[in-house]
Amino acid sequence: MTESDLPTRKLRVLIADDHRMILDMLALFLSTSAGLQVAVANDLDDAVLQVQQSGPYDVVLLDLNMPGMNGVQGLRRMVRLNHGNPVGIITSSPTARMTDEILNSAAAGIVLKTTPFRSLANAIRFMHAGERYLPMELMRRSSEQLREARKSELSERENKVLEYLVEGQTNKAIAVEMQLAEPTVKMHVTAICRKLGAHNRTHAVVLARDLGLV
């Protein structure tokens, strides 16, 4: 018997959500169409009990807002119980702060409730492979929020100086264009570098372009 002849073990997945209808639909699809072995739970305590009784699952998905979660406390509890196997979060539309908090609590990923079932199966396999799953929608949102936050940190005059830096203008040329003293321009450049986390003016230009500030 070759290795290819050996039966492939189905991934054991535990999904916990307090919306029973959605939970049953997810379990049905993932079991029949995606070939996963799916167990379900209605709240965190039920999920914890199943892990304690059945051992760690290959992947656990927890609804962020179901009973017992208390924000990311429930996530951290399950991460400890599941012996290093991936634990992801299911949620609707997390804020940037909550997204960071979830990821900083060792979550294997975030799955939005608007995710198509087929994409959910792919996300589960992605997390099982040891990768961190984050939908493009959240990645774009995080990038936009970071860009807006960085841009709002700069004053109106600093944003203008930044535009001239991107054009390759010297401090002296910028001073002439903006009718400022050259030391004042140098002060603005220093402030721009500090706020963007840049090492120098060239690095500031690169970061500004990457963030879409200019």
From TrEMBL:
SUPFAM superfamilies: C-terminal effector domain of the bipartite response regulators, CheY-like. The keyword Phosphoprotein applies. Residues 147-212 form the HTH luxR-type domain. The keyword Phosphoprotein applies. Residues 12-128 form the Response regulatory domain. The modification 4-aspartylphosphate is found at D63. Keywords: DNA-binding, Phosphoprotein. SMART domains: HTH_LUXR, REC. PANTHER family: HTH-TYPE TRANSCRIPTIONAL REGULATOR YHJB-RELATED, NARL SUBFAMILY. This is Response regulator. It comes from Tabrizicola soli.
